[in-house]
Prior knowledge:
It is built from ten helices and two strands; from the N terminus they run H-H-H-H-H-E-E-H-H-H-H-H. It is mainly α. It has one domain (7-332): Rhopdopsin 7-helix transmembrane proteins (Up-down Bundle). The protein has a two-stranded antiparallel ribbon with strand order 1-2. A hairpin with a 2-residue loop joins strand 1 and strand 2 (191-196). It is globular, with a radius of gyration of 22 Å. GO terms for molecular function: neuropeptide binding; neuropeptide receptor activity. The chain crosses the membrane at residues 42-69, 81-106, 126-148, 160-183, 211-234, 255-273, 293-316. Belongs to the G-protein coupled receptor 1 family. It comes from Sarcophilus harrisii (Tasmanian devil).
Amino acid sequence: IRPAGHPEGYSKQEITKELAEDVVGEAGGHNASSPELALQPLYIAVPVIYSVICAVGLTGNTAVLYVLLRAPKMKTVTNLFILNLAIADELFTLVLPINIADYLLLQWPFGELMCKLIISIDQYNTFSSLYFLTVMSIDRYLVVLATVESRKMAFRTYRAAKAVSLAVWFLVTLIVLPFTIFAQLYEEEGRLQCVLVFPQPESFWWKVSRIYTLILGFAIPVSTICILYTIMLCRLRSMQLDSHAKALDRAKKRVTLMVLVILAVCLFCWTPYHLSTVVALTTDIPQTPVIIGVSYFITSLSYANSCLNPFLYAFLDDNFRKSFRKLVECRASP
């Protein structure tokens, strides 16, 4: 979403959508330029790829929600945080068809209330994933150190995890609130667009919004996670472990590995997007076909994160696979 009247403010699919208007409007005529013709395959591919992400994401996250809510053995602290991750991903994939329709229609036909809702959900997706991964990393840190020191964690209960999850959603809601307030309909060249309408000077407020997202949505949670795992590894290496601690409990090792892999995939999907923010803030890059292609790839990569997590659970968690198989067999049996 971009601020009204500010071309440098594009983010996500909006930059490709704006250039799509030129391609759709001119590429069919005799005066179509070679860059516009070069971009045609890209704009044909955009709704197709977004549709695939939507279909895979809805299927995978629905399966995750079904297993975590229905299987009694899956009601653990870590799985509760994974459940919240899946809810965030499911919400985003549910509204992705509206973004696809917006792209194809080249305007926003759904009204201002829906505009605010879609922008809010999009921002929830940006912030909630890393915040819940931060909470999961804190949980892993405490569990591993408690195991090493042969301590019990009486406060680590399912009820406490629910309270923490609600606190995370409340925090993310506060962070997202400014985007909801600034989201408005703006008429541009006779078409209504769902954009962020900032006060004057727009350029300044656009930069503030990008820095705000970069710091709160990436720098702080990623730095926290890296510090936690660094301290945890240093403590593990420096301590003389007894036979019980050396085991570290095989199940806990698998859970820690799963959290690390989910984190790595999340960083792989979101780091290019946030790096593009740094580039947008510091460099004036011409919108060539190559740059537009890279922008499109970065956007698709950030969207793809919402459909990758379910496959990570399936590959890395034996209990998840067993519970899913058992639930499917129960429903299939007469």
